[in-house]
Amino acid sequence: MRHNKKFNHLGRKSAHRKALLSNLAASLILHKRITTTVAKAKALRMYVEPLITKSKDDTTHARRIVFSYLQSKEAVTELFREISGRISDRPGGYTRILHTGNRYGDNAEMCMMELVDFNEAMLASKEEGKKVMKKRSRRGTGKKVAEAAPKAETAKPVKKPATPKTGAAKDTAPKTAETSAEKTPEE
């Protein structure tokens, strides 16, 4: 029986598994995003997140412990210089797993694993639609107040008048202030 044994062996002996996770962790730290199978990504998450937490304390002892796991000087340097500064205020959850479908050859579930604070596209979209949420409590009114960022007013589309079928010009719509401003040269 395997009661309370959550560890995924990944079909490898312990030395092979440690080497695999070490190489995957070093690649994730150096490149900030890797493509792998879902099973390996879940095992890697349990392996690399304690190392990232340890990098918040930049001491010689912490560097030596992390090096014993990663076996790569470049990865340790990158972790303690670049990554630890970005994740200093984050209490955990440093990685994200994005499912990408199945692999063509053996139909294995594939995913992209990335460091959360290094995806510029998601960070930019978060800042655009940022909402301010009030802290919810049990004793409070129970209302969740969200103030959305001010949205720009959108102009309603202009209806084009129906054109007769007898050789009339196709573009007979009245010009709006926006279209006339675009066509005139600025002085």
What does this protein look like?
- The chain is an alpha+beta fold and 187 residues long.
- It has a domain at 14-128: Alpha-Beta Complex (50s Ribosomal Protein L17, Chain: A).
- It is 41% helix and 13% strand.
- The strands form 2 sheets. It has a 3-stranded antiparallel sheet with strand order 1-3-2.
- The longest helix is centred in the N-terminal third of the chain and has 18 residues, at 14-31.
- It is extended.
- It starts with 13 loop residues before the first helix and ends with a helix.
**Helix content estimate:** 40-55%
CATH level-4 homologous superfamily of one domain? Ribosomal protein L17
CA-to-CA gap between the ends? 82 Å
* Average of pLDDT: 83
For the record, the CATH architecture of one domain stands as Alpha-Beta Complex
* CATH hierarchy class name of one domain: Alpha Beta
Low-confidence stretches: none
Task: Explain the layout of strands and helices.
Blueprint: H1 14-31, E1 33-37, H2 38-54, H3 60-70, H4 73-86, E2 95-102, E3 109-115, H5 120-128, E4 132-133, E5 146-147, H6 177-183
Antiparallel strand pairs: 1-3, 2-3, 4-5
Short description:
This protein is an alpha+beta fold and 187 residues long. Helix 3 packs across helix 4.
Structural features:
single chain, 187 residues, alpha+beta, 50s Ribosomal Protein L17, Chain: A, 3-stranded antiparallel β-sheet, two-stranded antiparallel ribbon, 6 helices, 41% helix, extended
